[in-house]
Amino acid sequence: MKAILYSQRNEGPVPRRPTGLCAVSVAEHRCGPAHPPRSRRGKERRNSSGEWQEEGVRGRWPPKAAPAAMPSSALWAVDLFGRVFTLSTAGQHWEPCRDAQLEFKRVSAARDCCWGIACDHQVYVLVGASDVPIRCQEEAYENQRWNPVGGFCETLLPSDRWPWSDVSGLQHRPLDGVALPSLHWEWESDWYVDENFGGEPTEKGGWTYAIDFPAAYTRDKKWNSCVRRRRWIRYRRYKSQDAWAKIPSEDDPQQLPDPFSDLSVGGWEVTDEPVGRLSVWAVTLQGKVWYRENVSHHNPEGSSWSLVDTPGEAVQISCGPHDLLWVTLWEGQALVREGINRNNPKGSSWSTVEPPTSENGILHVSTGVCVVWAVTKDRKVWFRRGVNSHNPCGTSWIEMFGEMMMVNVGLNDQVWGIGCVDRALYFRQGVTQSELSGKTWKVIVAGREGDRSLSGSSFSLHSAGCFFGNEVRGSAESCGPGDTDASWEVPGPASSPAGLRGKESWKGPSHATANFPEATDLSSLRLLPLGLEEPDSADCHALWAWVSGGGCAVEAHTTLKWFTTQSGLCPSVQTLSLSITPAQTAAWRKQIFQQLTERTKRELENFQHYEQAVEQSVWVKTGALQWWCDWKPHKWMDVHVALEQLTGHDGAQDSILFIYYVVHEEKKYIHVFLNEVTALVPVFSEAKHSFALYTPERTRQRWPVRLAAATEQDMSDWLTLLNLSCCESRRMHGRPSPQAIWSVTCKGDIFVSEPSPDLEGPERRLPCDQMFWRQIGGHLRVVEANSRGVVWGIGYDHTAWVYTGGYGGGCFQGLASSTSNVFTQWDVKFVHIYENQRWNPVTGYTSRGLPTDRYMWSDATGLQECTKASTKPPSLQWTWVSDWFVDFSVPGGTDPEGWQYASDFPASYHKYKTMKDFVRRRCWARKCKLVTTGPWLEVTSVALRDVSIIPESPGAHGSGLNIALWAISDKGDVLCRLGVSELNPEGFCWMHVGTDQPFTSVSIGTCYQVWAVARDGSAFYRSSVSPSRPNGDCWYHIPPPPKQRLKQVSVGHTSVFALDENGNLWYRQGVTPSHPQGDSWEHVSNNVRHVSVGPLDQVWVIADKVQGSHSLSRGTVCRRTGVQSLEPKGQGWDYGIGGGWDHLSIRASATRAPRSSSQKPASKQNGQPPSVAGGPWQTPGPVCC
Amino acid sequence: MTDDKDVLRDVWFGRIPTCFTLYQDEITEREAEPYYLLLPRVSYLTLVTDKVKKHFQKVMRQEDISEIWFEYEGTPLKWHYPIGLLFDLLASSSALPWNITVHFKSFPEKDLLHCPSKDVIEAHFMSCVKEADALKHKSQVINEMQKKDHKQLWMGLQNDRFDQFWAINRKLMEYPAEENGFRYIPFRIYQTTTERPFIQKLFRPVSTDGQLHTLGDLLKEVCPSAVAPEDGEKKNQVMIHGIEPMLETPLQWLSEHLSYPDNFLHISIIPQPTD
């Protein structure tokens, strides 16, 4: 098989952009095949000076500063002057919104965007800035028919499709007729031909052949191929990110314009198809309700407004994250939308809810997932009891304390409000799933950036009060400064929370509110006499008009810094940034470290021969645990344990763990030398707090010593103590070395092993099962490391994390944990159960199965009964954070109610019911969350699926260079990280690398060879990646092994290994510096779950079905043996720790064993890749220039 | 990167090389050889000198032996002060090893407390720990501990077992997440130049405006004479565990990391050596 240059070859009259400046010749790099290179599609261009530039990407190269991306979680608010501000959950200052030109009345935020109504009554959407662009593929098909005269030509039969059409052929689609949907989009490149046909490269020109339209197309032209077609693609990109983009209104020119007056976004939990779908609802001044169609991540503006009939005149609307939609009517009642579901996000009908009291109608409502809050016309705040999906109207109103202008329910049903008198922003404290109404209102006193300058020009209490007051409450006859002062002193915005204030003071003294018209001419305000202005801006606080928490995630473990003003940073306050930790670098700390070292030297160096005053003693800790006995029938039995610790004079510690048990009334014991223990693994299953203890022998048996404690604290104490003793006896302290081997178990626990120098030695290798693994706090699915100490992880919820250099956390407290650098970490995953039904002729599908059938509520295999009530979170560390919901995203698709059909259990399921289907099932999912601690910090902005950091051989590269890091986003975008270094392991920003389909895996080798795997199972090689050109040049398509779909790739120094979906491990044959794509795949092994190739081309895998003397294990760490320069595929496997391991990274381990004399300098032979273990590196690696 | 945890280890394993010589007037049967020992800085003299006692008793007549006491350059050494404090305060400028004179006669009743058994040291140590926790947590942490935890603290010190001691002691070093530190910092400031044994006052780790107090703040407040004026010459050394932390060091951090096992910061103020 030969790699085909994945490129455009221009055939026919195709408009083509002048490409001279961007066609970086592949030949220059001596690695391209003979085909002419296609112009690099997309955004890359060279400027006039020949420098390479990336267009439209936020990151500069070299990066100068971190881009100020929209905070991932922020509260949005509008002040009385229409200025929009955001307050990050991590910050304590309001940031003004970018587009300062526009003034807004209303905003409604979601996670990634914010919709608003500006003072011009137009609707705008602001899509948050992201390193990953929003890009959409447009496609068109060119169809041709063969005729005996001219061969294939555009002349089709009259009955045929259009010569240029969509995929179905029904729609005419000429290339120049495909237009951009709005001004906010731009084309990324010109049209080009897609030469990838289902993972296989096509012949020249991308043509696929068939007997007739419409039919099955093949790559090969046959004698009966009468028609052919090819696919043209072109990308458009949303260019108005981080700016307010105007949404055109649907005014009928026949009628008077009806401007929008309120708007609300939500509904993202109704369905995630398409990705990022949102419900956007709006209300006009005439009281009509509109719904914005087709708003999603890839179509942030939506397509059109459609009118939704209402039984009354609407004034305000609120759409919750799920299926709640409430509208307030002019008359004071509320309308509740019924029938909103994933198939009908607009809902079907309205029902009416009466206000709490007949004299005061509802002024404002706000909905969450299962709460509704309202404000009535007398400014009282109400909580609606009993609201949920099944009963969107709820049951009754409860009056809450405080008086508010408005309230807003955000993520997790958290609530914010704007105080009625002081116009301050309040956060409802204590809102939890069990106590949705919360406890108290707490005022947010976060400062605003540049408060001083803002107030200098136009900030005036008098004007603000007059200007936006909705009702006449007092007379405006006395508006002197003294009066305004009084009205502010009494409520005391920062001193006492609203909830504590009496009603009398809420009404306020002679508060200067007049009924000014709602005009927005702010310039007039500036004409007010200077005397009215607040003299000291530090004392005045912002006056708010609107707040939206739809993008603001406040959870139990979030610590908010909104409620105190802090001047100056405390030196010991841990700042959440890795690159700058002032506390770490403080001079006083350095001095203490240094002086202690000097003191020890001074007082001990010359006196080592002195006797110690305190004789070392044996220390024994005893306790009662349970032990999973070694013999059948296996069961938990009560045992006494004793840990004996002996410390020698040199400080070396030796410990023995004794386990005393009684069998047949005979007292027996087993013992374990802790210096032989290779791993201590917590096992939180079966509602028992237990852990497994491995030794080399136990590893070979696949049968660890399992011990359980009565309480979590007890288990944590024992685990910490045993871990400390193990580390002590191996003299291991502090953080892992940069060269460490990192791994993750299927439970998300993180383990790290120090590579000994003889780990990869040519002779007397350290057997894999003798490696010592110690646990590091945190919870991850993927961990990848680099020998310069940069370590990244990805959680189950795709959150990216960067290692902080600490250790401990999780259940390791006290001495086993570093003081700084340990932070809160969390992860989210879903538990799935299946509802099974069988058809019978009388009642149709019911939950009454045959006696031989599986459980009607079961796991995926059907063997275990799993009901909604009995199914527990995966372990005691996890807690439920949602209710059960139907999972529609199962492979194979479902019908509208989530069912999948089959002829019988167990069988292959399909999404439509046919005559032969007698059973059906559907998948229910429930979200659970774990909160722990560990030496990890979140890398915000983009969720990841895979990550790869360049492995480096020591001294092979200048250590001053940035560290190349590539990743795949959860949506399949290929990204490379800019600015990653030892000092800034988090890097600065992402650079997006365009692809024609979503990718799943990526790996970068020591010489910047980037390989990736696409969703269709084929591999891609990225050419010309280098430090000066971090994102490379273009993709080369590399077909997968025959009839296999690849799922992972790993590139070491010269070796490329890939893994397919059936667990086969493949080696790429024929990779050379001049031909980096190689020739063919060679099979190496089966039963492999994950592969990691290191900087010395060492090959480590996680393997399944490893036979031990006691049991068979899945997920075992294995090293490939016999890997030599002439035999890079190796010979066999050396089995290490397992099972239950899921992921491993050997890519930091670049320590070569000292070269033995018997080792032949193999690399000298005819330009072969250099030797792997111990050989001299005289020839440069492939692709290295 | 060095971690703060390493400081605890360094502090715990601090040793002072010491040479014990018998007082010349003591009556011996034969000549008493000096005895050399590495004394743990964090421990107490009478707790770690069993070997010394045995060594000198061998050369003495039984009837001449009464309670042992120690003296350095004429100053009787208080056993109830940690060893490191005694050394810093009295001998830090002299050459190593530290020459201590051993006495068995004429117990200086007005200078020293009697130490008839280890139980007395334990009682003294535990009362210090309790006093410190009263200052730090209104005694809440120490009172919630079980008897065996108290015992483990003491046994950890007595047997020089860092792990055993800190497994419990870490609980005494915690503070609520919403606070910026302890309620009050347990500290004692010693000066050789004054008659007063030590200074101890209530001092919070954080100022009213949220700033962390530093060692300098503490000294300015409770012992202004120790701090050199802005432009003046440095007259004193401020020493803890044989080192001179910068005056900018946050007091809370010092309390967590440089406290003695009795949970007090013992700060010595000694005249700057002239050479």
UniProtKB/TrEMBL annotation, chain A:
SMART domains: DysFC, DysFN, TECPR. Residues 1159-1169 have a biased composition (Polar residues). InterPro entries: Beta-propeller_rpt_TECPR (IPR006624), Peroxin/Ferlin (IPR006614), TECPR1-like_DysF (IPR010482), Tectonin_beta-prop (IPR051513). Residues 1149-1158 have a biased composition (Low complexity). It comes from the Eukaryota. Keywords: Autophagy, Cytoplasmic vesicle, Lipid-binding, Lysosome, Membrane, Repeat. It is found in: Cytoplasmic vesicle, Autophagosome membrane; Lysosome membrane. Belongs to the TECPR1 family. This is Tectonin beta-propeller repeat-containing protein 1.
